[in-house]
Design a protein that fits this description.
mainly alpha, two-stranded antiparallel sheet, 11 helices
């Protein structure tokens, strides 16, 4: 009986934590959701989100978000403290991908077959984005025409954009849409920001991790929407797995520190 009570308490705590995560995601959606949306549909640059100070789309609040590079300085600092938690707790794109993948029939578990190679895609796209931004002088590939109504403006943007911008935008939209069929396809295999955070997360102070009590049952893997295990590739510290481990082998905190 005490064990069942303890298990129920752990499950309740996990459900409560997941509720807080959804609330946090919703809050960040309100704060930076417009910027995320504009980056795909209205940003005139091939690589969005990094040239906001030069952007002619005055209705986008990217200038405020990146003023004095504040956002892009805070993001790596947050990664050094909490790892890739931005992806699991704050990114509006992550929330969209979460919702799109709720009933995705294909999971592609991280340690099997093609899924072992596909995560390298986000590093390739990160390298391509850096090359376009730094060495191709961040080309402006469309004129974001404005007619008042947002969706009418989006239509004109796509109608008059250069092929380079159209290919970029359609590939992004296609891969995000693919998440309906392949769980979190964009976040796991393609997102360049996710690639940068993934490269930093090994230095993070706090993380979700497995202890020596782990027996490899993969209960955590089955509930993870990134199809991975704690502290392995693509783990976003979302904490959804904390309440499902039958061995109580998953912790949140400093790995190797006091428990």
């Amino acid at each position: 009986m005490p064990e069942s009570i303890a298990a129920a308490a752990v499950a309740e705590g996990g459900a409560r934590l997941k509720t807080w995560r959804r609330l946090t995601q919703a809050g960040f959606l309100l704060v930076i959701g417009q910027w995320s949306f504009y980056g795909i549909f209205r940003c005139p640059f091939v690589v969005p989100y990094v040239s906001c100070q030069n952007c002619p789309v005055i209705t986008c609040h990217g200038r405020l978000m990146t003023m004095f590079w504040g956002f892009w300085l805070l993001l790596p600092l947050a990664a050094l403290v909490f790892g890739r938690a931005f992806c699991g707790w704050a990114c509006p794109g992550g929330l969209v991908n979460d919702l799109a993948s709720v009933h995705a029939p294909i999971r592609l578990a991280a340690r099997k077959g093609l899924a072992r190679l596909l995560p390298w895609g986000k590093y390739l796209l990160l390298a391509a984005s850096l090359y376009i931004w730094l060495f191709m002088d961040q080309p402006r590939a469309n004129i974001p025409l404005r007619v008042g109504d947002f969706f009418a403006s989006v239509g004109l943007t796509f109608e008059h954009a250069d092929p380079f911008w159209l290919v970029r935008s359609l590939v992004v939209l296609g891969l995000v849409t693919l998440g309906i069929f392949v769980t979190k396809c964009w976040c796991r295999f393609v997102c360049p920001a996710g690639g940068a955070l993934e490269a930093l997360k090994g230095l993070a102070l706090f993380r979700v991790y497995k202890t020596e009590s782990c027996n490899g049952c993969d209960a955590c893997l089955r509930v993870c929407n990134m199809a991975t295990r704690p502290d392995e590739a693509n783990c976003t510290n979302c904490c959804d797995c904390l309440s499902v481990c039958p061995q109580d082998a998953i912790r949140l905190g400093r790995k190797g520190g006091s428990r």
